[in-house]
Specification:
alpha+beta; 8-stranded mixed beta sheet; 235 residues
Length: 235
Amino acid sequence: MEFITQQWNERDLTPLLENETDLLVIKNTPASQVEIFKFVMEHYEISAQEPLGKIFLDITLEGKYDELYGNTNLEWHIDKGYSQHPANITVLYGLEIEGEVGETQYVDNRIECPVPNKTITVNMDRFTSDSAYGYRFRNEVERRYFRRKYRNVQHDLIQKDKKGEFVYYCQGYTELPEEEKQAIEKLLYHPDRIYSHKWEQGDLLIANNITTNHRRGPTHNGKRHLWKMEGYNKA
């Protein structure tokens, strides 16, 4: 997967805004939620993240802030892709990185789709019961709320932006016949298409959430504390 690397003092969101790239990697970013927020909000509407309603979520190995756990494998997914209006961008920041921590992997969804265009749905039962999902529902009422709210979400499988066509698909919860899932995943997740980001403290990753899938590998030793934020295109 192609991406653009910048330094914080030369940061520029234009390549992402213009669909010239689907991923920006910005090095040496200050450990300041205020500065990161100000930078991103120049071009995107920042949204509180479900279900906790926070702008910045903490991702730690042990879930020490009762938010997102970072010690499990995750399937390929689109953040909030189970909703009718998923975030346009996702932001990850490396606050504390020590040792050989799990890498974050990305692929772009710009493949020639082997399946004819159709309406796809979300498997919410699987999504809300999978132990690999990073959020632990606080109670059964909250779990049932998610299932009801997003059960009837539909999307076109093949979509288009300024750069061209892409598939709106992710391994985590797109509902399709098994043979069609296998055909898409064979192309989409081919090893030659994967970018694996080896984290360094101060890294800021901003991805087009609609046109990429991402996942993480497990961390067995070391320390990894990330901040996560989401944003929507301005009208």
